[in-house]
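Minutes, project check-in
Item: structure for the 328-residue chain
Input as provided by the requester:
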Amino acid sequence: MRIARWQQADGVVGEGLVLDGVVVPFPGGATVAEVLRDGLDAASGLDATARTALEQDPSRGIPLDAVRLLPPVVPPSIRDFVTFEEHVEGVSAGVEGKSHVADEWYDAPTFYFTNPHTVRATGDTVPVPESRRLDFELELAAVIGGVPGSTGETLDVDAAGSHIFGYTVMNDWSARDLQAREMKVRLGPCKGKDFGMTLGPWIVTADELAQFVDDDGFLAVRAEVRVNGTLVGEDLVSNMGWPFPELVAYASRNSVVVPGDVLGSGTVGNGGCLGELWGRGSSIPPLEPGDEVRMTIEGVGEIVNVVGERVPAPDLPRARQRTRARTR
């Protein structure tokens, strides 16, 4: 199943399924958030119900090209991992001057939390900060669903896998110059990342991708990114260091995952971002306003965005060095 949110020409927002070139609202006016909360097993009959309703009343379907797709989920949180060794090698070469993967990277799938309030949709023009090293990051993201009787806390790997409702394409937009300054403070990234994250075009349920799971439990789907029509990066998602159920298990450790949470795979290797290519000596320029970024993941779909204008930031003073007095 493909689950989507959309806006019609009259401004009405719809939520439902994508079927054969049309979108069909969920029965009873259900929302994506409610479907995710009820879980994948409960959603298994929605496709058949929608097709039957469409056969009985074709007017229930709205042509896909007549609506504007919205982000398919309004996530409570977004965790973005760094799981592709090749990506780490390339980016470290650009940042540190040598290709290196820290020993600690192999210990556990590290992630950061990013901003759920600046999620963009496919087709959007994405406004960006005043960066001169603007980049993209091609990722596959898992979307969490509910499981009856589970709180989503401290899950083992098998239980974690059952919480994966489906997958969507992710672009973690990145301002590398801002990010580089922030990381020197040993915290972040923050403003180098939190201005935009594209999710879309829809959520493909996990059962649809079961055919691509390899013998080691990894999703062997092909991922590609093009800038202004030129292929820049391509990889198999199965090159990540941990499969998705292990990412979910780690995220839930001494914590909790809830329906609607989004977990990004991290940037794929072999050109999943410009930062990796720069570290390998590429002269591909940073993104500029007007550039088109197109990402495609096999079995999931495609997202396309145009880089918008730079948004000037209000001035902020430098830190004041204080007296460190202990009394008034």
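Outcome recorded: The first strand starts at residue 2 and ends at 7.
No further action items on this chain.
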